[in-house]
């Protein structure tokens, strides 16, 4: 009893508030995150001073790659499924249930309709290996026009956005734009990045 | 670590009574916190805040009927021909002089501002050549926004424009364009 014991406080810290905060942030980010869908082609978008934000839903994106290949993408699984069925009817192709399902969760694609069933039967890994030739959009064989029509039938509130690469020749863009005009889509959006310096 | 302590972990006071030894209610929260921060880092890194921006374009409908076409005085028309290698040719109406300019600050923007001031009824016709790039089109639409030009339209580049530019010969056949702002 002679010695005085140094009373050691355990080096413990109440971390509860920090943990609370951490979980709050986790929840927030989990709910706000939307995963960027995998794009079949890399598109380098041009810059502009426009600040209109692209809507999150009810949108259809027509991507034009630098080499002139055209890709098509639309949101909403159910609408995609409807669209594929109508396209199948028009081209005389019956899509199986599996094909419909894998199409509905697919992102953008750029294939002639005839190649679609084969493409949809592949596994996602195999699909990445395939170089997609782009959707035919010239005046001889304009499948893009059909996609636009059936997409709008399945979802009338659809907004059309064109996502072109900076280096795309205007010729291809003109084809796409004329296709849109022919199908009475007179108001559409061009996807651009924000320019920092004006 | 993060812990919940209650009681102080059993009785030490040791009186005569035998106390029921309480089990410690401390929970080691370390793994949970680790996981929470791992997730937090992951979501912070994957979140993209800047969504892509868009510009809205309104195109004129194709008018088949001659009567429905709006006729514009050729003096009120500023033609901008977007050529390859980021070159712009511009001329008023259907006659030369044809001037070359570029997409810089002192290029087409200056032209647009000057012409707009000179003629409030100005109508800009954008004629991209097949060989011009998509970026050129976006840039020129951007300039319309910046210079506050309301009346403009993207129209087809015709062989007539080519002759005007190439030769500088005046008096090409007068042609009415279908234009709606």
From TrEMBL, chain A:
Choose any GO biological process term that the UniProt entry carries and state it: protein transport
Question: Which superkingdom, per the lineage?
Answer: Bacteria
Quote any Pfam family the record assigns.
Answer: ExbD
Membrane topology type: Single-pass membrane protein; Single-pass type II membrane protein
The reply on keyword Cytoplasm is: no
Give the GO molecular function terms: transmembrane transporter activity
Q: Which GO terms describe its cellular component?
A: plasma membrane
Q: Does the keyword Zinc apply?
A: no
InterPro entries, alphabetically?
A: ExbD (IPR003400)
- Keyword set for this entry? Cell membrane, Membrane, Protein transport, Transmembrane, Transmembrane helix, Transport
**Main location per UniProt?**
membrane
Which cellular compartments is it found in? Cell membrane
What is the similarity comment for this entry? Answer: Belongs to the ExbD/TolR family.
Instruction: From the Swiss-Prot or TrEMBL record, give the protein name.
Output: Biopolymer transporter ExbD
Q: Which species expresses this protein natively?
A: Chryseosolibacter histidini
UniProtKB/TrEMBL annotation, chain B:
- Regions that span the bilayer: 29-49
Signal sequence, start to end: none
Any idea where this protein resides?
Cell membrane
What GO cellular component entries does it have? plasma membrane
Main localization (coarse): membrane
Offer an example of a GO molecular function term for this protein. transmembrane transporter activity
Q: Which UniProt keywords apply?
A: Cell membrane, Membrane, Protein transport, Transmembrane, Transmembrane helix, Transport
Which GO BP terms apply?
A: protein transport
- How does the record say this protein sits in the membrane? Single-pass membrane protein; Single-pass type II membrane protein
Q: Family per UniProt?
A: Belongs to the ExbD/TolR family.
Name of the protein in its database record? Biopolymer transporter ExbD
Q: From which organism does this entry originate?
A: Chryseosolibacter histidini
